[in-house]
Amino acid sequence: MTIPAPDQTADTLAPVRAGLLREAHADAEALLTRTEREAATLLDQARAEAQAILVRARRQGEADGANAARDLLVRARREARSRTLAARREAYEELRREAAQRVRGLRGTDGYASLRERLEHRARILLGPDAEVSEHADGGVVARTPGKRADLSLTALADHALDRTGAEVRSLWEP
Amino acid sequence: MSPADEIEYTKVRGLRGPLAIVEGVSGIGWDEYVRITLASGERRHGVVLDADRDLAVVQVLEGTAGMDPEGIRAAFSGSPLRVPVGTDWLGRVCNGRGEPLDGGPPVLGSHTAEVGGAPINPVRREPPSEPVLTGVGAVDVLTTLVRGQKLPVFSVAGLPHLELAAQIAAQATAAGEAFSVVFAGMGLTHADASFVRDALEERSAAGELVLLLNTADDPVIERILTPRIALTVAENLAFNEGRHVLVVMTDMTTYAEALREVSAARGEIPARRAYPGYLYSDLASLYERCGRIKGRPGSVTVLPVLTMPAGDITHPVPDLTGYITEGQIVLSPETHARGAYPPLDALSSLSRLMRKGAGPGRTRDDHLHVAAQLLAALAHARQVRDLADLVGQAALSPTDRRYLDFEEAFLRDFADQRSDEPRELDTSLERGWQALLTLPRSQLSMLPAQLLDAHGAKEFDAPDVREAP
Fold first, then answer.
1. Residue B362 resides in a domain
2. What is the pLDDT of residue A159?
3. Chain A residues within an 8 Å CB radius of B109
4. Other CB atoms within 10 A of residue B301 CB
5. How confident is the model at residue B468 (pLDDT cuts 50, 70, 90)?
6. How would residue B376 be classed by pLDDT, with cut points 50, 70 and 90?
C-alpha cells in the first residue's frame, strides 16, 4: 500500500473543507437572521408592552386624579352645606332665646296678674283642685300633685308655642 | 299641645337597662311617644312598650345612663310619634328618629304625620308603571325597577349590598321627572354610615335626598321607628309634593332583629326563630306603603335590602319578605368571587312588574327581548359549565364552548360596572348585545330577525352551524 503525499491529502480534502465552511457560513447566516428577527420581535413586543403600561399608567393616573378631585369637591360641598346649616341652627336658637326673654318680660306688665290667674285655673283643670300651685322663677306657674306635675311657666309655654310654629320659622333664612 | 302632653308624671319606680317604669299614669297607650325631662333640664325621648293599670314601661331612646329616677318628668304625647313632613327634609341628614345629625336646626314642616301611617287603600291604588332607572346596568336591563314597586335585594354578609344600595340611591332617576330618594340605614356600623354619607353627598347637596342613619349602637326601638319615619316622609314628598320617591331601606334583617328584641322585652310569645308571630304583618305594614294613588301625582318605590343569615333564603326575614314583595334582586357569593360588581345572581333575580316598566314606549323596543335572551343564554351557559366540570372543556361542542365565552362576556362586559359609574340604559343594552353576539345567530332564537340583522348577528364557522342543536 502506498501512502499518499501530504499535499495530495490536502487537495483531496479541500472540497470537504470548502463544503463544511459553506455550511457553517450558511448556518451562521441563518442564525444571525433568526436572531435579528427574534431581537426585532422582542423589541416590538417590549415597545408594545411599554406603550400598554404607559396607557394603563396614564389611565390609572387620570382615575386617581378624578377620584382625588371628586373627594375634594365632596369635602368642599359638605363644608359649605354644614356651614349653611350651622348658621340656620344659630338663627333658630337665637329665635328661641329671644322668644323666652320676651315672654319673661311679661312678668312686669299690667296684664300679668290676669294671665297668672288663667294659668292657675288651667293647672287646676289639669291636675285637680287639690294641686299645689306655685310661682315659677321665670314667671307663670308650676302645679304639683303626688306623682304629677304641670309646667305652665312662661318659658315652657313659649317653648311649646315655638314647637308649633313649624315651617314659619323657615322665613328666618328664606326670603 | 294636648292636655295629656301638659301633664308630666314624676314617679319613676325604677330604671332597668333602657327601660323606665313610670307609675301613677292613666289613659296611656302602646307605642305612645314620651318626652322625658331630667332634673338637669336635659331632654330625652321614649316610646311606651307596655302599659298595665297605672304602670307604663317606657323605652328611653337615648338610654337611661346618668338618669336619676328622682328628678325625672315624663310627658306622654297621647299618640304615637308624629314627624313634621314636607320638602324641608330634602338635603338633611338625621338620626333614626329624625333628629338632625348635620348640625342644622330641627326639621320643620307645616304639618305633621303619624309615622305609623296606613297602607294605601287597595281600591285607590294605581298599578305600578314606568321605570325607575337605577344606572346599574344589570339591574336596569334584567330586573327593571318600576315606579310604585317593592323590590328587595337579598344578600349575604360580606357582599357589597350596601355599596349597591348606595349606588342606586345616588344614581336613580325617573326620566327627568321630579325625583327624590329617602335612604333609611338601620343598624349600620359607624364606618358604613360614613361610607353612605360620602357616597350620597352629591345627591344630598342637590337637595334630592333624605338620609336617616340609625347606627348599630343606637337603641333598638329607634330602629323600628326609622323605616316608618322614612316612609312617612316619602309619602308626603310623593303624594303631596308630586315627586317620584325611592325609599332604600337597609338592612331589614337588622330591623327584624330589633323587632324581636322589643317583642321579647314585651313578653310576647315568640314564633319562628324567636321572631314575633306578627313579623309578616309588620313587614307588610312597611312594604305595602309603597305604590301610586289614583288621581295623585308621584309614587313611592321601595328597595329594601336584607342579608340572609348564613345565606339561608328560607330564613323568616327573606322568606316573609319574598311573600310580600314583587320579585327580588339576589346577590351571589360565587359571582362576587369571580370579581364582578354588582355580584348579581341574574338567574335567581326577578322583577315581577318588569313588563309594566320596560319595553316599547317605556324604555327601548328591544329591552324585553334582550333581557329574555340574556337570561335564556345564561341558563344554558350554566348547564354547559356543569357539563364541562364533568367531561372537560375539550369534549364540549364548539357551540357549547361559545356559551362559556358568552358567560365570561356577560360577567365582564355587561354585568361588571364600577360602583361610582352611572350607566345609561342604552349603553347597558348595547353591552348586552355585544355579549349576545359572542353566540352564533342560530342560538339567538328569542330575538326578532330584524333586530339580529340590525346588530349584525352571524353564524360562525361551518362546524358550529352543523353542531348547533
1. no
2. 86
3. 166-167
4. 28
5. very low
6. very high
pLDDT tens sequence across B331-364: 999 999 999 999 999 999 999 999 999 999 999 9
Q: Looking at the structure, tell me whether residues B150 and B250 fall in a common domain.
A: yes
A74 and B103 within 8 Å at the Cβ level: the answer is: no
A27-81 per-position pLDDT tens digit: 999 999 999 999 999 999 999 999 999 999 999 999 899 889 988 888 888 888 8
Residues B294 and B167 in one domain: yes
Residue type, A169: V
Of B102, B103, B109, the CB nearest to A166: B109
Phi, psi of B56 (to 5 degrees): -130, 130
Q: Do B105 and B223 reside in the same domain of the chain?
A: yes
Smallest CA-to-CA distance from B433 within B456, B449, B416 is with B456
Of A70, A77, A148, the CB nearest to B8: A148
Q: Which of A78-92, B115-129, B370-384 has the highest mean pLDDT?
A: B370-384
Helices (H), B7-46: none
C-beta atoms of A89 and B103 within 8 A: yes
| Cα separation, A135 vs A104, whole angstroms | 13
* C-alpha distance from A19 to closest chain B C-alpha (Å): 50
Interchain CB distance below 8 Å, A89 and B105? yes
B289: domain CATH number?
A: 3.40.50.12240
Beta-carbon separation of A147 and B10 below 8 A: yes
B86 in contact with A, Cβ within 8 Å: yes
Q: Give the range of the structural domain holding residue B445, as residue numbers without chain letter.
A: 367-467
Phi, psi dihedrals of residue B252, rounded to the nearest 5°: -70, -20
Query: Which of A74, A84, A150 is closest, CB to CB, to B8?
Result: A150
Tell me what ipTM this predicted complex has: 0.77
Q: What's the pLDDT tens digit per position in B203-226?
A: 998 899 999 999 999 888 889 999
**B116 within a domain of the structure (yes/no):** yes
Q: Does B82 touch chain A (CB under 8 A)?
A: no
The number of domains in chain B is 3
- The domains of chain A are located at 19-172
* Grid cell for residue B343: 355580584
Backbone angles phi, psi at B361, to 5 degrees: 80, -10
User: Is the domain of B99 the same as that of B231?
Assistant: yes
B27 touches chain A (CB under 8 A): no
Identify whether B456 is part of a domain.
Answer: yes
CB-based contact (8 Å) between B98 and chain A?
no
